[in-house]
Amino acid sequence: MAAQSIIQLGAGGILRDKSGRLVMTFTTPLGEGTNNKAELEAAILGLTWALELGYRNIILELDSQLVVHWILKKVAPQWSIITQLGRLQNLISQTQNFKCLHVFREANWVADALSKHSHKTTTPQVYFNIQHTPKKARPYYHLDLLQMPSFRRNKTKRIKEPP
Questions:
Q1: Tens digit of each residue's pLDDT, the chain (163 residues)
Q2: Strand partners, 14
Q3: What is the CATH number of domain 7-145?
Q4: What is the C-alpha separation between 119 and 14, in angstroms, rounded?
Q5: For the chain, how are helix, strand and coil distributed in percent, rounded to 5?
Q6: Closest listed residue to residue 13, CA positions, set 102, 151, 115
Q7: What is the pTM of this model?
Q8: Beta carbons within 10 angstroms of residue 109's beta carbon
Q9: Of 84, 92, 116, 162, which one has the fewest beta carbons inside 10 Å?
Q10: Strand 57-62 relative to strand 97-102: parallel, antiparallel, unpaired?
């Protein structure tokens, strides 16, 4: 089993209505932990907000296939996240229709940008319109509305030929 790195965590997410329009976004610092803990906390926060706002037909999209498998009970979870997973399962039991789907990171840029923004805050932040949502998340939201793909790009180093 591979060791997991303990890192500074943040959660971010977006709630959309059935037509894909923004209902709200959120971002919150989480302290230290693993990326799987951050994924679960973001799911818990998003589902909690959705239920509070009266939504009962939920599609939860995550970019961690492992966490999706834990939620769908396809794979046994690590002992260290059983409590979090139990909290999430309790929330899921309050929905009428629930689907949990894996999406590639490229389809999850809004949540990713919100998660990164959490490192600049000390308290949870909630936004109910796109104008107040952190600037780095806004273009990804607009691309999503247009059903335009986003791509990861890495800068490549140029290797100089030896003399």
A1: 445 667 788 999 999 998 889 999 999 999 888 888 999 999 999 999 999 999 999 999 998 999 999 999 999 988 888 999 999 999 999 999 999 999 887 778 898 889 889 889 899 999 999 999 999 999 888 888 887 776 666 666 666 676 6
A2: 25
A3: 3.30.420.10
A4: 17
A5: 40, 25, 35
A6: 115
A7: 0.82
A8: 21
A9: 162
A10: parallel
Buried b (16+ CB within 10 A) or exposed e, 12-28: bbbbbeeeeebebbbbb
Nearest in space to 55 (alpha carbons), one of 20, 15, 22: 15
Work out the angle between the directed axes of helices 35-52 and 109-117 (0-180°, nearest 10). Answer: 100
Q: Report the 3 state secondary structure along 9-69.
A: EEEEEEEECCCCCEEEEEEEEEEEECHHHHHHHHHHHHHHHHHHCCCCEEEEEECCHHHHH
